[in-house]
Each structure stands twice: as C-alpha cells, then as structure tokens.
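G., the chain you wanted modeled:
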Amino acid sequence: MTQNKKILIVDMTRQTLFPNEKVADVMTLSRDANPDLFRPYELLIFTAFVRDLPEELVYVKDYINASGYNPLVGKNRDDLGPRFPDMSFVFNSPVSQKLPSMIVTAGDIDKPNIVRCDPLVWNAILGSHQKKKILGLLYRDRDQVEALIVQELRILNKERQKKREETDA
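Predicted structure as tokens:
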C-alpha cells in the first residue's frame, strides 16, 4: 500500500504499528503532542493497546476528561482553531466494518466499560481543536488493528479518487 501523506497514525502505548510497511506517517506518543505536529494532517488515527478489553478491537466513541489537565489551557493559537472548540463529536466511527465502541477517560473514573488512556484523550482534544477527523481505536491484537487501518485507508483512497474524477469531469 502506498503512503498516505495526509494521515497520521499515533499509538499512545508505545506499540510500533506497521514496522515493515509504510502506509502513512506512524509514531508513538505517551503525552500530549506539540499542537503543530497535527497541522499537516487531515486524518488522525489514535490507537492504544489495552490488555483487558472485552473485545479484540473497539473504536472510541467519546471521552471524559477527568484529569484536571487540558492541553488548550493558556493563550489560544487562532491559527490552529477557535478559543472554545466544539467537542460534541470528536471521534469518527470506522467506515470499513461495524465495531463495538467504548469511552476513554483521562483521570480516574470508576465506571464499567470505560478505559483510561490519558494521552489519547489529550491528543483528541488537540486534534479536535484543529478540526481534524479523528479515529480512535483500542486493541488487544496488533494484527487486527493494522488490518482495520489498512481497510479504512483503502476506502478513504477510493473516496478521494472518486472526488478527483468528479471534479475532473
């Protein structure tokens, strides 16, 4: 598969995704990123390995930030986004297949079906501030998350090709 230049895949748990294949820019983060890191990308795929997930693979439907930390605190950078961005719909669902969903949290919340992953929440806030499309995936099996990402990128590439053909016609 060719590399997608406007897509960034970030694993929040220091797992190396796609070690032998270049499908997009891939990196790991364990804290919130410099906001400029996300600027050139239109799609951010945030992943996290979670050993005790009820399923092999789930997508992130929403988040709760109970950490007391917000990466948007301080002087706003108007070049990145509005002072108070809409956080109603931060995450997108996968288009290639139907998956169960979960909520992630930053900070401790004692509720069932919630997974703590502070960096995923903080980076989703940064990406949403910049109006980026964000797909959040939690996984137990690296091969499954990589296969899903490849499916998502194929569909995205087909959609882009179709739009190019429509504008050229």
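The chain is about 25% helix and 25% strand.

Shout if anything looks off.
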